[in-house]
Design a protein that fits this description.
single chain, 143 residues, alpha/beta, Rossmann fold, 5-stranded parallel β-sheet, 6 helices, 5 strands, globular
């Protein structure tokens, strides 16, 4: 199973460590971007690599933190939604405003939105594994 994880800043290494023991391939766009560092058209190539990663992912996990979610994450989330991907939005930021602390478009694009300001890394990874078990088939679209 291939998972694209977008913007999991604090727990990147931990998520990758936990998934070593699971039959999952974790794709982190920021890891892939390094290979384009010295290319003339690096920004266009990074953009296309992110799109390709989403196209080949079974599910997407997006960290939606801050007063407003990262603009790149929002674009990636919208693209994944348009492709029928199962999206797990994660929010550990406890600010309350708008729709569950987010612009209303984001939570409604997510198959599930996990909000827990007290979540530790184990809880987050367990949630990702549970989500991947339920929605991981690349050909399965739940209406």
């Amino acid at each position: 199973m291939r998972i694209t994880i977008i913007r999991l800043f604090k727990c990147l290494a931990y998520v990758k460590f936990r998934f070593v023991c699971c039959p999952l391939i974790v794709i982190l766009p920021q890891d892939n971007a390094v290979k384009f560092k010295f290319h003339e058209n690096k920004n266009a190539e990074i953009f296309q690599d992110c799109i390709n990663s989403i196209d080949h992912a079974d599910i997407m996990v997006a960290l939606l933190e801050g007063a407003d979610a990262d603009s790149g994450t929002s674009v990636e989330l919208g693209y994944a939604y348009s492709k029928g991907k199962a999206i797990l939005g994660i929010r550990t930021d406890s600010r309350i405003s708008e729709e569950r602390g987010l612009n209303l478009m984001l939570p409604f694009a997510c198959r599930e939105l996990y909000i827990d300001s007290l979540a530790n890394f184990d809880a987050l990874v367990d949630k990702i594994i549970d989500f991947s078990d339920r929605y991981g088939s690349i050909n399965r679209v739940v209406q």
